[in-house]
Specification:
- The chain is an all-alpha fold.
- About 55% of the residues lie in helices and about 5% in strands.
- The radius of gyration is 25 Å and the shape is globular.
- The termini are far apart.
């Protein structure tokens, strides 16, 4: 089944072992041209091999240097091509084969590792869960997930003690399972690395974690609220680190992420960033619920859609409040990214004029053009993984036309452009009308409800990740600012209250 691709994989391994950059480069170029000519199983294996070979080539040619962005992008691209092939209809009959299960799990694990190099630890964790769902108790997936959770917990603010303990509890459990595993899919160096990660924790703290987690009692709620919150938990869509844990307790079913304490002058009012973060969260949770409402078809049309004269254009177009909710959810989510840019411009005092702020401009050092100017400050991602994560999300959109870009990001940009500014037809089925026009002359975007729904769900996960990273990057920056002030620095705590749910009317 994988005979041809395994022979080629051995050639990749030989060139890498011999540190032969020329042979490795030539082999990569050859397989890049030929990969689509192979059957589905060999194609998956070859995409996996290409991803690892591109990374190995950089290491051979640039020893002791971190991988550049283009190399990381190519690595991500080939793992994504392999994962995309998992859904191919021709691949389904092989999914239960032992070799296939191992290959799929390894692909998700290594894709997660590549995402981690971009700072995208939340997306990384999701890939490890995919691997474990395919191959339960895979030691490398468990160990890597445990390390990722430990890493994640370190960047939570001092007010998130319970969340940190919960994350570390699962991290220790996963690492311990990986270390003790008899599975052949763990190598000696990895086992030692996982042991080192465990040993970095204080022994008394590890004993404390062995007590397990005490779950809070859940508040009484209606059937509809319970169904909604269970859906959010299963989809991992609450704005909280708890949604990144292997647990679906309703006691974790809330959006508890807030900004850490922000240092301000004694004569200053409450930081405006707190209100800005409130807005990000509220827009997200509202878009999330609008999306949730679109997942079920009502038995009758909504009364607001009745007595509206619309012409049947014979395109299987859908017109309803439900479809408009789906479109509104998508547009709201995409718009949050620019609001995050506005937040970062304010908090980091970048000095970008308000009219020039967007998710792309904040990563630059100046505005070009006739009315250009230098920024007051620039964003430094070198010691702030959460900022790096945000930068990579932006990079994926900015480079969406590149050969090695993620096609889903390119499609999301296209959908957003049509929804906001042009003509969009949401159809019941896949529609071939738009295929009759070139990109330049295409007047309308024809998109099925299923595709629009899938891309909205992707945006939900992406924007959730971004909102959490905003809080994490502020926490890292506040720690740095306190450290710069020295040991004698003292701060008074401003008492803030939570907005009461009773007033959210």
């Amino acid at each position: 089944m994988y005979e041809e691709s395994q022979q080629i994989a051995m050639q990749f391994d030989k060139a890498t072992y011999e540190q032969n950059a020329d042979d490795l480069k030539a082999l990569i170029e050859k397989i890049e041209q030929d990969v689509e000519n192979y059957d589905i199983c060999n194609r998956v294996q070859l995409y996996y091999s290409l991803a690892t070979a591109v990374s190995d080539l950089w290491s051979i040619e640039n020893p002791d240097k971190q991988k550049d962005n283009d190399t990381i992008q190519k690595t991500l691209y080939y793992y994504r091509k392999a994962i995309e092939s998992f859904e191919d209809e021709a691949f389904q009959e092989y999914r239960n084969d032992g070799a296939t299960i191992s290959l799929m799990a390894s692909t998700f694990i290594n894709y997660g590792n590549a995402l981690e190099s971009c700072g995208r630890i939340i997306a990384t964790i999701e890939q490890y869960y995919f691997a474990i769902n395919i191959y339960p108790r895979h030691p490398m997936a468990q160990g890597n997930l445990g390390v990722a959770l430990l890493h994640y917990s370190q960047y939570l603010s001092s007010t998130k003690t319970y969340a940190r303990d919960c994350m570390n509890y699962y991290a220790v459990t996963l690492l311990d399972s990986a270390i003790k595993s008899k599975d052949k899919n763990i190598y000696k160096e990895a086992r030692e690395f996982f042991k080192g990660a465990l040993n970095n924790l204080n022994p008394d703290y590890r004993k404390f974690l062995q007590k397990g987690i005490t779950f809070d009692k859940t508040e009484k709620m209606s059937k509809n609220e319970r169904l909604y919150r269970e859906w959010c938990i299963n989809a991992g869509l609450f704005i909280t680190p708890f949604s990144d844990l292997p647990c679906n307790s309703l006691s974790f079913a809330f959006d508890e992420m807030t900004l850490p304490e922000i240092i301000t002058g004694i004569d200053q009012n409450m930081p405006i960033e707190i209100g800005m973060y409130n807005q990000l969260k509220q827009e997200f949770v509202s878009a999330r619920y609008l999306y949730y409402e679109t997942l079920t078809h009502g038995s009758k049309p909504h009364f607001s859609d009745k007595r509206t004269c619309l012409t049947d254009t014979l395109e299987y177009a859908q017109f309803s409040l439900r479809i408009e909710k789906l479109k509104t959810s998508f547009k709201t989510l995409f718009g949050i990214l620019d609001k995050i840019a506005y937040f970062l411009n304010t908090y980091f005092d970048l000095g970008i004029k308000q009219k020039d702020v967007d998710f792309k401009s904040i990563w630059q050092s100046k505005k070009n053009g006739r009315n250009g100017y230098d920024y007051k400050n620039t964003l430094d991602t070198s010691n702030n993984f959460a900022l790096l994560s945000l930068k990579w999300i932006q990079r994926e959109f900015e480079h969406s036309e590149d050969k090695y870009a993620c096609p889903k990001f390119r499609r999301i940009k296209d959908i957003r452009n049509y929804l906001e500014h042009k003509y969009t037809i949401v159809t019941m089925f896949e529609n071939s009308i738009e295929n009759n026009h070139s990109k330049e002359e295409k007047v309308a975007l024809y998109i099925s409800e299923i595709e629009l729904s899938n891309h909205t769900l992707m945006l939900l996960k992406l924007v959730r990740e971004a909102i959490i990273c905003v809080a994490l990057c502020v926490n890292v920056e506040e720690r740095n600012r306190i450290a710069k002030r020295g040991k004698n620095f003292a701060a008074l705590q401003m008492i803030v209250n939570q907005f009461d749910d009773e007033y959210k009317i």
